[in-house]
């Protein structure tokens, strides 16, 4: 209330001041300026500052309320998620063997207790079997994976061996071909450098005329061994053939 009164008074004084000064523009002295400045400071301190402070307080209140609402919303979301999970959970174990009687107390007979125990034991066995099955499946998958990796390694090693064998055979074949080519070239070179064989000289045949041949037959010497009386050594004596000797000889 006091702020409104001050604000109205300040506005009224400003209007009066404007009315007065509008008739005498340019005649404001230093005292009037100081008085105007003082009134402005009063208006700002008494009117504007409280409004600003109020706006600040409202802003802080709204910000705090917003933060609180966010936290509450987050908590409600978590609670809703927990409730959904709780509803998804199965009913308690013993409720499975409770009779569906309408109202009244529930009495547990020895048969129902035995059923509950059997059910619990069967459930544990099923869970253990399921767990063992999952472990076995995981182990089988691991074994199959390792087997595939081992087979891949063996195939890779076999391919490497086959490649090396092909390279070795190719190198041996190339070496054999090179040796054959070099031997052929050496043979051709040797044949080029070797002299051709000389033909054997034919002996000249001398044709003997018949007369000369007859003379040779006549002059055939017959060697007869005789003993030299002086030396005691045998000596040879030339005689004509029997057919050419005279009867006197």
UniProtKB/TrEMBL annotation:
* Highest taxon in the source lineage: Eukaryota
Q: Where is the composition biased (Basic and acidic residues)?
A: 124-133, 143-171
- For bias type Polar residues, the affected ranges are 239-249
Listed Basic residues bias regions: 186-204
Q: Where is this region: Disordered?
A: 124-210, 225-249
Query: Can you name this protein?
Result: Uncharacterized protein
Query: Organism, per UniProt?
Result: Patellaria atrata CBS 101060
